[in-house]
Automatic annotation (TrEMBL):
<dbReference type="InterPro" id="IPR010982">
    <property type="entry name" value="Lambda_DNA-bd_dom_sf"/>
</dbReference>
<protein>
    <submittedName>
        <fullName>XRE family transcriptional regulator</fullName>
    </submittedName>
</protein>
<dbReference type="InterPro" id="IPR001387">
    <property type="entry name" value="Cro/C1-type_HTH"/>
</dbReference>
<dbReference type="Pfam" id="PF13560">
    <property type="entry name" value="HTH_31"/>
</dbReference>
<dbReference type="Pfam" id="PF19054">
    <property type="entry name" value="DUF5753"/>
</dbReference>
<dbReference type="GO" id="GO:0003677">
    <property type="term" value="F:DNA binding"/>
</dbReference>
<dbReference type="InterPro" id="IPR043917">
    <property type="entry name" value="DUF5753"/>
</dbReference>
<feature type="domain" description="HTH cro/C1-type">
    <location>
        <begin position="18"/>
        <end position="58"/>
    </location>
</feature>
Length: 283
């Protein structure tokens, strides 16, 4: 099978895990290549996410590297052979790959934790609110891409209403609640939608009031996606040039601590609902 030109974030992550596993065990690429019956170049491509690896070869790789954690290996096997193409693949080639990677990350997570300072979380935005956000892009989005981004964002939100949704815990700063993207009417409807969604049993919304003062990561939007095993957790950070995905051990620890701090400073869920309701009445 030919090497990929542009691997997805999932494929890059799988390759990174293969590389990390091999290096930690002190096993050479030549040794793994000999085990799998391929040339060394293919091992390099597998570790960069440019070439697929079968579940059987993945398990041989793990055994050769003395890795016996079945939960971790099973999670990697699922990454190597997912249950068919996800819905986001319909947008491959017509929307930036990073947007598709976000959708896949959300779809595969068992728990999502997010922190937002200026924007309402994408998974909780109304159509009109999202339209106002995309309408403010510089340079302006072409009409077709604008509409595709809208449809894609709304389709992403189904992860919260499917039969087996992930737990979703988000902290939203007061500043984001007071932003009137699209005008007062749109802003009020967005806040009412947020209150409605916060009543779902698997969803927790906490408000971080301005009065809470300084907090770590202020101004940053981040998503912490918990995987079936902690080693495969991922942080996604929004940047002007597109999403960044982080999964170094130190990075994961840093952003867990950051979200912990935000949650400690935030109001409890019931007080948060009342806070959002008060802002909606003022809109």
């Amino acid at each position: 099978m030919a090497a990929r030109r542009t691997p997805t974030e999932r494929q890059r992550r799988l390759g990174s895990e293969l590389h990390k596993m091999r290096v930690a065990a002190g096993v050479s690429a030549e040794s793994v290549a000999s085990l799998l019956g391929v040339d060394r170049g293919k091992i390099s491509n597998m570790e960069r996410g440019l070439r697929p690896i079968s579940p059987d070869r993945l398990r041989s790789w793990a055994c050769h590297c003395d890795r016996s954690d079945e939960a971790y290996i099973a999670a990697l096997t699922k990454m190597a052979q997912p249950d068919g193409p996800g819905w986001w693949e319909r947008y491959r080639g017509v929307l930036p790959g990073g947007l598709l990677d976000i959708a896949e990350l959300e779809d595969q997570a068992v728990r999502l934790r997010t922190g937002h300072t200026v924007h309402i979380p994408g998974l909780l935005q109304t159509v009109d609110h999202a339209r106002a956000i995309f309408g403010a892009a510089v340079p302006p989005l072409p009409k077709r891409e604008f509409e595709l981004r809208m449809v894609h964002r709304m389709e992403r939100q189904r992860v919260l209403t499917r039969e087996d949704p992930p737990e979703y815990h988000c902290v939203i700063h007061e500043a984001a609640l007071r932003m009137q993207f699209g005008g007062a009417t749109v802003a009020r409807a967005q806040l009412e939608h947020l209150i409605h969604m916060s009543e779902l049993s698997h969803l927790t919304v906490r408000v971080l009031p301005v009065s809470s003062g300084t907090f770590p990561g202020s101004g940053q939007t981040l998503v912490y996606a918990e995987a079936p095993v902690p080693e495969l957790d991922t942080v996604q950070v929004d940047c002007t040039h597109g999403p960044e995905f982080l999964y170094g051990e130190a990075q994961l620890s840093k952003y867990r601590d950051q979200l912990d701090c935000m949650e400690q400073l935030a109001l409890d869920p019931e007080a948060s609902r009342r806070f959002i309701h008060d802002i909606a009445r003022q809109s």
